[in-house]
Amino acid sequence: MSFQFVPQAYAATKWTGECIGIVASQGSGGNMEVATIQGITCLLKNVLQPLPALLALVAVGIIIMAGIRLTTAGSDPKAVASAWSMFTWAVIGLILLAVVWLALVLIENFTGAKVTQFGI
């Protein structure tokens, strides 16, 4: 008889088995779940899915940092120019992110292809 440690959070949730495969049955007739090559798609999905939100968060953080640099620049023209440049590039990044996301959503709405969801 063997016991396996199963965390309570894992035991309380219902696992769909999307990212794991079933291997041959063990001695007592039970199936053992192990990671398979399908796990790579799940890994990529989990990494790519929050990426637009993280990029937007970084851009907002850079805008805040540029504002702090602008207020602390004083009368130094180089520091003011650097802060404005930082602000400009962060806003351009946010605009590009929004345009790309809008283009993907429009493609998805017109064609029906799920281009905003990762899958192989």
Automatic annotation (TrEMBL):
InterPro entries: T4SS_pilin. The chain crosses the membrane at residues 53-71, 83-107. Keywords: Membrane, Transmembrane, Transmembrane helix. Pfam families: T4SS_pilin. This is Uncharacterized protein. It comes from Candidatus Collierbacteria bacterium GW2011_GWB2_44_22.
